[in-house]
Amino acid sequence: MRAVSISVFAVAAVGVATLFALPFLLSQGLLNAAVQMLIAALFASAYNLLCGQAGMLSFGHAAYFGVGAFGTVHAMNAIGGAGLLPTPLLPLVGAAFGLVFGAVAGWFATQRTGTYFAMITLAIAELVHSLAPHLKGLFGGEAGVSTMRMPAWGFDFGSTTQVYYLTLGWALLCVGLLYFFTHTPLGRLVYGLRENSHRLRFLGYNVHGLGIAVFAISAMFSGVAGALQVMSNESANYVVFDPGLSAAVILNSYIGGVKMFLGPALGAALMTFFGYAVSDLTQSWLLYQGILFVLVMMFMPAGLAGLPGTLSRLRQRFGLARAMPLVLLSMGAAILLSLGGAFAIELLQRLFSQDYRSAVRLHPGEAWPPVMLLSREWSPASMATWSVPLLLFAAGLLLAWLARRRGAALEGGQVERMPPGLAVPRTEGAA
Amino acid sequence: MDQFLVSLMNGVIYGLLLFMVSAGLTLIFGMMGVLNFAHASFYMLGAYFAYTLQDLIGFWGAVLVSPVLVGLVGVAVERFFLRRVHQYGHAHELLLTFGLSFIVAESIKLFFGNFPVDYRIPAALDVPAFAIGGAQYPVYRLLMGGIAIAMFIVIYLLLTRTRVGIVVRSAIYKPRMAEALGHNVPLVFMGVFGVGAALAGLAGAVAGAFYTTNPNMALELGVMVFVVVVVGGLGSLGGAMLASLLIGVVTSLAVSVDRSLADLFALVGAGAWARDVGGLLTLKISSLSATIPFALMLLILLVRPGGLMGEKV
């Protein structure tokens, strides 16, 4: 046990050191993306306290993010633009707004559990979303509210590097606090809330109060994330209340894996990075994100963060040499299938785009013009174009089938060698 | 008065449209315990399928064929997606349908573009039915209402008067007992899911032509439909009807109210104070019409957690 915790500590230390070194390694544009990744990671961690740890599925977490953001923007503009607090402490305002609004909303939402809870959170978020454009004084209407980061404590917060360190400091502090919270008695009770709330009530705990507390704490950290967003953008717009943001945090968290503490943060950072990296290459990023989410929900309920665990379990059970072909086959299948899928989607996207359609309509009767993809021209009428994704799919499916057979063979051998009754139930893995 | 009458009728017809979509949703929930997030996506698919088909087989053909296609999509969703994750629990199913609704919306954007498409009612139907105080009332609205009412009657009779209805109701009430008695409950589930999807598709095919057909229509209507089923009581068909009409009429009437909360305060002599406070208090009710359903839902959940006609909680 000791050895494990030391290695975990070492990995965490290396990770934090890397984060601190990033401004020396990255360009300005990438550093900006890193700021967004940190904010998304913090937001996902805050969300996961509610959905992963307490088992309360919220479909409207953008509301608390947005309330924290607008609280902060008004605090920054307070006292003639001097700011209510020194710039580095402003996320506290976001936290306070998130906490208060979260406590009120949580009081409503935690009246019910399960599906009803999800619907109430959705309704509260939509309530704010539909109200915000009409309250120009508070939310600034179409133009939003803009602001300035004031110099404080010897920093001017003019450069991306300083903003990055400010965001990093707050993100690390908040994620650390969230982690610490899971080890407090209250944090342990939260797991009880997820597993069996009836039993908690029988043991004499105030389940409704507990639910409100978790909800408010999650909203508080979401508010901090919103505050950091405002401080990075120096503006806030009612677009933050958009259901898209609530959806993004759900997708990110589950793709990352809600069963692990850092899973959602990693998922959010990864998805934000990809969103940034491929935004020039594709217009269908949200579609890929949705497909990835559905695949994760269907085949890997533990999320991407569950993969290392699955791998080490396979190694423990079958040994490295015997598990390796299975892992390689599965990876090959995944890569081929995603390449085929991406190729097909990109091809379709170009064929159905408005430019292409008007080009076709301009020259009726002629052959359809070729489309550009991967700096090559592809003719939509030729077999060769469509055989690329088809071949990729076929090869991927073949590998998947081989991997499945391989997995079944491993399982079969394992069960035979074990005395009856000790056979381990089939686990996720190859599929 | 004429204005009021027109608003009232528009509200009733919008409510009937809401019912067409929420009927399937509430039936599916009552049966499988799954709140199908993708249900409004079926509504959108119905509109887009009909839009694509109308050039080939005409408007009425499209309106008839499109629900069938949407029903098949629904059957596929139940058979190949929901049934696979059933073992992980309802939250997982809810999330999966959420992901599917996301994929449907993004695919629509991919194929049809992120803007409204030109799906219109045929010119023959684009005529006024009668005039109220100088305003012409379109015949198509009445048609939509008629289709919804016919649908309600058919579902009601099907569920209460036929043998299939008995099996379906027993599968909703006690699925395991129904299965033990030899009924193929998974098939019943799949059927109800498909029929629910087809009903939403029909609503989309009919209403998409009247309102706009764009990639956001699922989200806009979907949230409203959730409000309807929660207010009406999850799983209750009658409740869905009542709540649909209530919300349709309330939102429609609110648009024409040019008053604000400040006027209410003025009755007790605090009008000037309220106008000074501004913000929410001086906001016109008309601009709140999109907000009222959500406030209504929160109110209902507080005073009657099971919904208007739901079971006691």
Description:
The complex is a heterodimer of chains A (431) and B (313). Chain A has 431 residues and is mostly helical. Chain A folds into two domains: 18-302, Orthogonal Bundle (ABC transporter involved in vitamin B12 uptake, BtuC), CATH 1.10.3470; 319-417. Chain A has helices spanning 2-25, 28-53, 62-77, 91-109, 114-131, 136-139, 160-182, 185-195, 197-202, 207-233, 243-256, 263-277, 285-299, 307-318, 320-351, 354-362, 383-417, and strands spanning 145-146, 235-236, 371-373, 376-378. In chain A, strands 1-2 form a two-stranded antiparallel sheet. In chain A, helix 2 runs antiparallel to helix 10 (207-233). The longest helix of chain A is centred in the C-terminal third of the chain and has 35 residues, at 383-417. Chain A is globular. Chain B is mainly α. Chain B has one domain (2-257): Orthogonal Bundle (ABC transporter involved in vitamin B12 uptake, BtuC). Helices cover 73% and strands 3% of the residues of chain B. Chain B has helices at 2-32, 39-85, 90-112, 139-161, 163-173, 175-180, 185-210, 217-232, 237-254, 261-267, 271-277, 292-303; strands spanning 128-132, 135-138. Chain B has a two-stranded antiparallel sheet with strand order 1-2. In chain B, strand 1 and strand 2 form a beta hairpin. In chain B, helix 1 crosses helix 8 (217-232) and helix 2 packs across helix 3. The longest helix of chain B has 47 residues, at 39-85. Chain B is globular and about 70 Å long. The mean pLDDT of chain B is 83. Chains A and B meet through helix 5, helix 11, helix 13 and helix 15 of A and helix 2, helix 3, helix 8 and helix 12 of B.
